[in-house]
Amino acid sequence: MVICRSKSEIAKIRRACDVVSGVLAEVRRAVNPGRTTRELDRVAEEYIISKGAFPAFKGYRGYPASICTSVNQQVVHGIPSDYALQAGDILGIDAGAVLDGYYGDAAITVPVGDIDGELINLLQITRAALMKGIDQARPGRRVFDISHAVQQHVESNGYSVVRDFVGHGIGTHLHEDPQVPNYGEPGKGKRLVEGMVLAIEPMVNTKGFEVKTLSDNWTVITADGGYSAHFEHSVAILSDGPAILTEWD
Ligand code: MF3
Ligand code: CO
Predict the structure, then answer these.
(1) Atom 6 of ligand 1 has which residue's CA nearest to it?
(2) Atom 10, ligand 1: which residue's CA is nearest?
(3) In angstroms, rounded to a whole number, what is the distance separating the alpha carbons of residues 58 and 55?
(4) Mean pLDDT of all residues belonging to the chain
(5) Virtual torsion, Cα 212, 119, 104, 96, nearest 10 deg
(6) Could you tell me if residue 209 is left (phi over 0), alpha (psi between -120 and 50 degrees) or otherwise beta?
(7) Containing H/E element for 108?
(8) Which pLDDT tens digit goes with each residue over 105-146?
(9) pLDDT for res 249
(10) Which pLDDT score is estimated for 117?
């Protein structure tokens, strides 16, 4: 069942999203060759707690950390570890916070030091695909209008979009209805109405869209060894269009 949020509920979701925006900014500042992803997780957790919030991912279905850190061929749900980042890596940082019972969720993918031109392009296209999807998040459109806009931008630039993981509604739970796939036929899916809040999150691969999950039961990697990028915003559908509740660049 899709939930429509009141203005005061959206204000509460926005406060959680402000914490998420702050975490992404803090973690991104700490990204450097030599840093371990576990150190980044500690930066994130301390920041979230200092804001009186709680890391939404920690303990979610047994997830062991406060953020997801997904490097290079890792698509999403990389678990922070002793891996030391290297110049030339790309790092996906996904963060969630719950504050006063309301959730925020967002992700960015950032370069570590200087990266290859092809990877710069991957980051730009993934991010632009998210923005194309967000532009469809308006009353009267349908869920798959978002999906289609994302897919269209990704595939017309020669990349592929992951099928096995999707965006989602967000509010008093991390994951609510509806699912928001990053591929689909325009004009299909549930109608979007004012008050819906969606986490839109394209995952884009340089090669095929197929992915697999490692034996840690979390880390998702590309099946063919291609690189992958992920960007996510929590977005409220207002009468006059999309309002991005999280913030990064
Ligand atoms: N942004 C991701 C999602 O919405 C992150 C979830 S990680 C988890 O699914 F640990 F919470 F599962
Ligand atoms: Co999400």
Answers:
(1) 57
(2) 57
(3) 6
(4) 98
(5) 60
(6) alpha
(7) strand 102-111
(8) 999 999 999 999 999 999 999 999 999 999 999 999 999 999
(9) 85
(10) 98
**Which residue matches tokens 């979009």?**
161
Q: Render the burial of 225-248: b for 16+ CB within 10 Å, e for the rest.
A: ebbbbbbbbbbbbbeeebebbbeb
- Residues whose beta carbon lies within 6 Å of some atom of ligand 1: 57, 60, 63, 68, 77, 94, 105, 107, 168, 199, 201, 232
Which ligand 1 atom sits nearest the alpha carbon of residue 65? 10
| Distance from chain centroid for Cα 235 | 11
Dihedral sign, Cα of residue 217, residue 96, residue 146, residue 192: positive
Of the candidates 83, 76, 135, the one whose C-alpha atom is nearest the C-alpha of residue 107 is 76
Ligand 1, pocket-test mutation among 60, 67, 174, 220, most atoms within 8 A of CB: 174
CB 34 within 8 A of CB 43: no
Q: What is the pLDDT of residue 182?
A: 98
* 3-state class (DSSP) for residue 42: helix
CATH fold of 7-244 = Creatine Amidinohydrolase (3.90.230)
Q: Which amino acid is at 100?
A: D
Phi, psi for residue 11 in degrees, rounded to 5? -65, -35
- What pLDDT shows up at residue 45? 98
The predicted structure's pLDDT at residue 116? 98
Of the chain, the percentage scoring pLDDT greater than 90 comes to 99
Peptide bond before residue 80 is cis, with ω within 30 degrees of 0: no
Tell me how far the alpha carbon of residue 7 lies from the centroid of ligand 1, in angstroms. 25
Query: Which residue positions in the chain have pLDDT lower than 70?
Result: none
Q: What is the C-alpha separation between 104 and 214, in angstroms, rounded?
A: 27
Q: Burial-class residue 156 by CB neighbours within 10 Å (0-12, 13-18, 19+).
A: exposed
